[in-house]
Amino acid sequence: MFVTQPAVAVPPVVNVPNAITLVRTVVAIGLAVPAITHASVKLAVTAYLCYWIGDILDGLSARLLKRETRIGAVFDIISDRACCAMCAAALLVLKPEMTLPVTLFLIQFMVIDCVLSLAFLYWPLVSPNYFGSVHSGVYRWNWSPPAKAINTSGVVFLVLFAPSPWWPVAFVLAVAVVKVVSLGAVARLLVRPSR
Asked: Transmembrane residues, as ranges (predicted)?
């Protein structure tokens, strides 16, 4: 027997914030691909700007319109990884000498940060933006506005402007340490017995 109705009420998936996430993902990837094939700095920068501005706008609209949903948060997290991967590929074409820091960043962001970002699903939270009610330190170091801004823009800035790959490598490794320590803190919360 097939169940055709969900067991719990599901908020609408089609809403303004999710539409912004979809559009910014399609546009950013749509610009990153020709940035890769044509080695275009202008297209790569525009792709990153579409990704970052769209990422700010989807979250802001979700909060202002009171349309925050768990599925929207997961959609945003997955879309961030898709945009980031394609934009990072454009960076590699433009700056092949930065292969090591970009590779380390992708491992950190696509795997470690993704697992950490999805950890909110264990608690009755709408998104990682509310993780402060679970662990203030993990929230502050990962999802506070300054932390979110620094996570990807810091490495992009360093890859574009650092005189050698070692500055962005050091930055990426520092961010990775924060992410691994944060994952450890979350893991301890998950195994702590209920009182």
From this structure: 100-125, 169-191
